[in-house]
Design brief:
single chain, 423 residues, Butyryl-Coa Dehydrogenase, subunit A, domain 1, Butyryl-CoA Dehydrogenase, subunit A, domain 2, Butyryl-CoA Dehydrogenase, subunit A, domain 3, four-stranded antiparallel β-sheet, 12% strand
C-alpha cells in the first residue's frame, strides 16, 4: 500500500490505476454486477487490515470504485448507467462490504445519495442529477445528520445559502458532489446537491473512531454555500411542491437508507465468517485437554456447532434482507402517486425487521468468530477485530431498541410508523 502527502494522510490512487482498463466495460446484467462487486471485494480484502490500522483517507479506494463502474449501478442507462433496480444496488454494497466494511459503507451511501432526487425531487431534478453523476463518474457524499439541526438555510433571492456545522459527513470529504440538508427559519427542510470542492465547505478530517475507520465520517463546517432554488429537491417557486413531497412516495427515503445500513452489516458479517473459515481450516489447532481429543480443529464438536449456527443465522438474515430489497425495487418502480401510506409503512416495518435481525446476527457472528479461531487469532496482524469494530460502530447509528418497540406496535396494534428521520 502506498501513502501520499495529500491533506490529510491519504491513500494513493495510482495503486489501483491498472483496474481502469481491466474494468473498462460496464457490467450488463445482475450477475455481472455482482461478479464485479466480488472482484472489488477481493482486491480490498488483500490489505484491509493494514489500511484499517493506518486510517488514511480512502482517496484511492473511491478511485477503485470509480474504475469498477459500481458507482453507476443504479444510474440511468441513457447517460451510461447500469439501470439496475434497488435490489441489485443493495446486493452490490453487501458484496463489497465482505471485503472491506468501510468501502462497502461508502458505496452504500453513494448509491443512496445518487438516487435522492428520484425519491424526494421532481423528475427534472432527478434526471439532471443522473446526467451529472453518471457521465462524470462522480462519487456523492452527504452532510445529512438529522440529529444535528445545525445547517441553516437563508433565502437570498434566486438562491439559497447553507451555513452551519455537521458532526457526521460520511464520504463527503472525498466526494465530488455533496448532499446538503438544512432548515429554513420556518423549520422546513431542504435537500440540495452541490459541488464538494468549494471554499465554503471545510472538513475537519477528525474521523478516528473504533470502526469503519476508512469512511471519512468526520465533521464539516459549511459557510454560505449557495444553491439555486431550482436545486431545492421537491420545491417549486420557493414552496414545497405538493405533487412531489405531498405524497407517500418521498417518505420511502428513510427505509431505503436503513436498508443500506443492514446490507453492509450483513456483508461485514459474511466476510467475517469466510475469513474465519480460512483461518480455522489452516491454522486453528484442536484442544488437547478435553478428554475427547481430535486430530484436527475441523473435527471439534464445538467448532462445527458454532460454524453451523453462524451459517444458519446468516442465511436467514440474507433471505430477509433480499425480501426487503425486492420490495424496495417494486415500490420505487411504481408510479409515484400510487404508493400508499400503508404500503410505505409496511415496507418500513419489513426494513425494521431486517435492521433488528442483521444487527443481532452481525454482532453475534463478528464477536463469536474468536471462539472458533483460537487465542492466536486475536493478534493485531490477523485483523479479525475489524469486523466486530465496524459492525459495532454503525449499529449505534440509531438505537435498535426503538425498532423492536416499533415492530411490537405493528404486531400488537397493527400500527405502521409515522414517517420520521429514522423510520
Amino acid at each position: 500500500m502506498t501513502i501520499n502527502n495529500q491533506a490529510p494522510l491519504a491513500t494513493d490512487p495510482a495503486v489501483y490505476e491498472g483496474y481502469a482498463a481491466k474494468w473498462a466495460k460496464l457490467p450488463s446484467s445482475e450477475e455481472e454486477w455482482l461478479a464485479r462487486a466480488r472482484e472489488v471485494a477481493d482486491v480490498l480484502r488483500q490489505d484491509a487490515t493494514e489500511r484499517d490500522a493506518v486510517n488514511a483517507s480512502p482517496v484511492a479506494e473511491v478511485e477503485l470504485l470509480k474504475h469498477s463502474g459500481l458507482l453507476k449501478v443504479l444510474g440511468r442507462t441513457k447517460y451510461g448507467g447500469g439501470g439496475q433496480p434497488w435490489s441489485v444496488g443493495y446486493a452490490v454494497t453487501r458484496e463489497v462490504a465482505k471485503g472491506d466494511g468501510s468501502i462497502g459503507m461508502l458505496l452504500g451511501y453513494h448509491t443512496l445519495w445518487a438516487q435522492i432526487a428520484d425519491v424526494v425531487g421532481s423528475e427534472e431534478q432527478a434526471d439532471a442529477l443522473h446526467k451529472v453523476y453518471v457521465t462524470n463518474n462522480y462519487y456523492i457524499g452527504g452532510a445529512v445528520n438529522p440529529r444535528d439541526n445545525d445547517l441553516k438555510i437563508t433565502d437570498v433571492g434566486e438562491e439559497i445559502t447553507y451555513s452551519g456545522f455537521k458532526h457526521f459527513t460520511t464520504g463527503a470529504a472525498i466526494s465530488d458532489l455533496i448532499v446538503l440538508e438544512g432548515a429554513l427559519a420556518s423549520g422546513e427542510h431542504i435537500f440540495a446537491v452541490v459541488p464538494t470542492k468549494q471554499p465554503g465547505i471545510e472538513f475537519a478530517y477528525n474521523w478516528n473512531n473504533v470502526g469503519l475507520r476508512l469512511t471519512e465520517s468526520g465533521s464539516a463546517t459549511v459557510t454560505d454555500v449557495r444553491a439555486p432554488w431550482s436545486a431545492a429537491l421537491g420545491w417549486k417557486d420557493k414552496k414545497i411542491d405538493p405533487a412531489v413531497l405531498g405524497i407517500a412516495y418521498p417518505t420511502l427515503l428513510l427505509p431505503l437508507i436503513q436498508l443500506v445500513f443492514s446490507n453492509f452489516y450483513l456483508g461485514i458479517a459474511q466476510g467475517a465468517l469466510a475469513t474465519a473459515k480460512g483461518y480455522t481450516t489452516t491454522t486453528t489447532r484442536p484442544w488437547p485437554f478435553g478428554g475427547d481429543n481430535k486430530d484436527k480443529a475441523t473435527d471439534e464438536f464445538y467448532i462445527l456447532e458454532r460454524y453451523g449456527n453462524f451459517y444458519a443465522h446468516l442465511a436467514a438474515a440474507e433471505a430477509l434482507t433480499d425480501k426487503a430489497g425486492a420490495l424496495a425495487s417494486v415500490l420505487t418502480a411504481k408510479p409515484r402517486a400510487e404508493v400508499t401510506a400503508r404500503e410505505r409503512g409496511e415496507f418500513a416495518e419489513l426494513v425494521a425487521s431486517v435492521k433488528v435481525v442483521n444487527t443481532d446476527t452481525a454482532l453475534r457472528v463478528t464477536g463469536g468468530l474468536f471462539e472458533v479461531t483460537g487465542a492466536r487469532a486475536t493478534a493485531s496482524k490477523v485483523g479479525f477485530d475489524r469486523f466486530w469494530r465496524d459492525v459495532r460502530t454503525h449499529t449505534l447509528h440509531d438505537p435498535v431498541a426503538y425498532k423492536n418497540r416499533e415492530l411490537g406496535r405493528y404486531v400488537l396494534l397493527d400500527e405502521v410508523p409515522e414517517p420520521t428521520w429514522y423510520t
